[in-house]
Amino acid sequence: MSGSAVSLSDVATYLPGEPIGADYYAQFAETDALRDNVMFRAPKFRHHVAPDESAIDMVERAAQGLIERHGADVIEAADVLITHTQAPDQAFYGSGGGIAHRLGMRPSWVLDLHNGGCAAFVLALNVARQLLTSGAGHTALIAIAQNAAGQVFDQPGVRRKAQASVPGDGAAVGLVTLSGQSPILDIECRTYGEYAGEMAFAPDPPRKWWQPGPGELCIGFSESKITKVLARGNRQVPEVALAVCDRIGLRSKDIDLLVTNQPNRVFLRNWREALELPAERHRDTFDECGNLFGAGIPINLDRAISAGQVKAGETVVMAGFAHAGDFAAAAALRWGGRGR
């Protein structure tokens, strides 16, 4: 079993609501020392989760594409379910159990990942590959929900800040199978524990996130912290992508499609330049969807597949980093087509 190929056979996605234009946040904007920082230059559009829409709802809607193409029985029979929710709907546990119930699944494994952040999809691929090759089953489902934009960043006090105009919401579901259809060629995951916790809530006045108080929860940013995060992200994503390319014998300039997370336009440009790729071989939806956090990689991959940007036999490299740089990961696969 350990020698069997594992494939990312398909991916399906969901964007909530109608696109919200940049003028939405412009009407709330106040003087902010970080307003002109490259980290917070707003996309043209993004989507927001509805007030009564849960992460489970989003994943269920994303999964419809897989169900239409592969049948409900394939999803229901999945042996492994791996989830990541940017803003968990409940304080003490993730969405895995609720997603399994909603999709009619009875998986042997249900894992909720929190540390993967914007690179959670690649981390989940790595976990799924290890479980399937070890004999845990034949099929895994990866479910990612980014729901912080319409909940955390659209709070009345937070939406006035520069950071609020960049995030967008969306969800994605990936189907991983013990097959050679679209084989995963290699994965690199790196943890940088020295940076853990640097992306944190900073309400005013200060309090722990669970304590009552008047200050709304927002991310604590400063010019010096942003400079450090930019330097880490610019370095880490090319490093993990190049490590994967080196092991599979592929020059970075020969990557057929690069798919990354998309915090801002500066990272997107710097990453493709570092890997010597033209813009047309680096898929992004930043101006349509903003920063999609962990959902960015699978949503962009789905868009690329649907647009015919990647063809059977071509090599896709997915790469991203999380939070303030405490985790980075990359994966390469040989795309084989969507099948039925």
TrEMBL record:
Superkingdom assignment: Bacteria
CDD domains referenced in this protein's UniProt entry, alphabetically: init_cond_enzymes
Beta-ketoacyl-[acyl-carrier-protein] synthase III C-terminal domain boundaries: 245-335
Keyword match Iron-sulfur: no
Coiled coil start-end: none
Domain Beta-ketoacyl-[acyl-carrier-protein] synthase III N-terminal per the UniProt entry, residue ranges: 115-193
InterPro entries: ACP_syn_III_C, ACP_syn_III_N, Thiolase-like
Keywords: Acyltransferase, Transferase
Protein name stated in the entry: Ketoacyl-ACP synthase III family protein
Lineage of producing organism: Bacteria, Bacillati, Actinomycetota, Actinomycetes, Mycobacteriales
